Amino acid sequence: MNEKQIYDSFAVTDLSSGVGRFLSDKSYAYDAVYFMSKFIKKNLDSNNCFDKNALRTEFISYTADIFQLEHDSSVIPNYMSEVINVLCFARVLVHTPNGCYKVQNLELLDYILLRIENAYIFLYLLVHRTFLNHNLLDDYKKILSGQKAAKEIALNSLFTKFIGVSISVGARGTGTNWAKMLVKYPLTVLGFANNGLFITRTLQISDRTVNVEDISINVEGTRTPSYLPKKNEYVSKFDKNYVLNLIKDYLFVKVNVQTQVVQNDKNIADSLADLKIDILQSNRVQAPVSLGKYEQEQFVNTQIRGRNTNIQRTFRDSLFKNYAHKCAICDFSFPDFLIASHIVPYSQCEDTYDAINHYNGLLLCPLHDRLFEGGKFMTVLYDTGEIILANEIKTHKDFTHLIGKKIDKSLYLSERKHYLKTHNDLFNQKNK
């Protein structure tokens, strides 16, 4: 399915219909659409139906790990609900009488899942065509190209027309910030590709252009301190040029689109999503009731070992893929002896994201892995990369060469800081 076919399929979208819902405070984000769509696709039954209610516990666990949210956060169910709403609005899904959601456009669902940027393309084309269907594009062009006063007039005009037809406004009223946000979301989606100015939640036109973080959700998650956030890797690696090449016929401004070789390497979150879904699905497999207690325990232990092996393999592969094949401290490079060492120990990882995240690891030789493991003998300062040794070994002749040594800046000037800070704290606790 190509972009023109997708665009044409949205000729029926109608803000005033009761079919699904247009963009909302989760479904405007390409990453929410992508990762929820992935969960839906991998959990379809033989009739291509998705049972949201039956899988509620699983998609909550999945969403919490993907977006680094607290598992008891009350907003987590909204991720799936709002993405389902926009997929229904776009006629990708249809709500059936038995409460499930049936895929009615499998080609479009597969298109969204080709790569994470395709989820943004889906949203862009959906907004563009829906605005065309409701005669809103002329106002949007004026918002892009007019003087400040003209931009504000056009924005107010677009807002009035939009809320006049949108069923999503509901009982909250047209004068509420909720109504303004319903307009802000699609303008943000269009603005990113067209280098438009960012529109605030109160519909004020700011002085900065829309960036990739504006079209992403939970860029940093909520589990980590603001001074050392975890970053979702796919945000920094978003390939805007790939997007512009595919939607150039639907842009409102001239942009410098470069032809390039398109690479589609998996990001951390993508690998996590696949692994997390596999784990959740394997958890459904129950030991046969005919087995005795011992055999049932062995069955469970086998599942756990297999799951842990998959996590460790994914983690090691990611480290070897993203870094030079040598010890981060001494440059030892015989690959069979290099160890994929977790910074925050695997047993202490909050979730699968931490367990497979290559930023939570270093490639180390056997000696330095043993020193670094568990933070007992050695740590690496999160802000300078300097190696710090425990008092009991720092004067030993075999380790004095490490005093004052630093790892490469590229290894600690990244999300790895978050994990190194935790390792520093662990080291300090053990070496009081």
* Total count of helical runs of at least 4 residues: 18
Strand order of the largest sheet: 1-3-2
Question: What is the CA-atom radius of gyration, in angstroms?
Answer: 25 Å
Count up the domains: 2
Tell me the fraction of residues in β-strands, as a range: 5-15%
| Overall geometry | elongated
* Averaged pLDDT: 87
Helix content: 40-55%
Q: How would you classify the helix and strand content by structural class?
A: mainly alpha
Please provide the ordered H/E string of secondary-structure elements: HHEHHEEHHHHHEEHHHHEHEHEEHHH
Low-confidence stretches: none
Characterize the main sheet.
3 strands, antiparallel
Number of strands: 9
Multimerization status: single chain
Distance between the termini: 62 Å
Compose a concise summary of this entry.
The chain has helices spanning 3-9, 30-42, 56-66, 76-89, 106-112, 116-133, 137-145, 148-165, 177-193, 233-236, 240-247, 268-283, 293-322, 352-356, 366-372, 391-394, 409-412, 416-430; strands at residues 49-50, 93-95, 101-103, 197-199, 205-209, 339-342, 361-364, 378-380, 387-389.
